[in-house]
């Protein structure tokens, strides 16, 4: 966050691209946090809203076209099986709402599965851009306005919190990442061994 904050508008744009793409970020709602920080530092809240929305459109477009190119295979690969049926059914029935609602809701509401589903289920491109862009504009605008209006108080609280808890949070974060990587490797090795046994038995 310190790095992208120092980059100003360029950092905001790049963070918004990644935040709306299929690339996971360790901090949920990172774009909104940066919007609050920049608006609190007297950046024009309307201008940074437009920059963040443009970045979100780029990242969301990448995810949409990934789903469109890969179809259901990509969706099945990237979305947990326990959520897949509900997401595909909801997207097929309410295409625009399935895009706009996750785009406007704050974390922990999932976004990437719905964007992939919109592409895989062939939600019209122009309608997708309109629904996603308007929803992101509203969400980013609200975050920027809050930062402009109440930013100084928020920053004072954030500084106090980070000074007190930054080290424990980093330890927890890195521990969670290491555990997740170890679990992923374990599952991959287990699956490979199972497939090898099936081939031998066949």
Overview of this structure, please?
With 202 residues, this protein is mainly alpha-helical. 84% of the residues lie in helices and 0% in strands. It contains eight helices and no strands. The chain has helices at 2-6, 9-19, 30-40, 45-78, 81-93, 95-104, 112-120, 125-201. Helix 3 runs antiparallel to helix 4 (45-78), helix 4 (45-78) packs parallel to helix 8 and helix 5 packs across helix 7. The longest helix is centred in the C-terminal third of the chain and has 77 residues, at 125-201.
Which helices and strands, and how do they pair?
Layout: H1 2-6, H2 9-19, H3 30-40, H4 45-78, H5 81-93, H6 95-104, H7 112-120, H8 125-201
Helix pairs in contact: 2-3, 2-4, 3-4, 3-8, 4-7, 4-8, 5-6, 5-7, 6-8
Summarize the structure.
This protein has 202 residues and is mainly α.
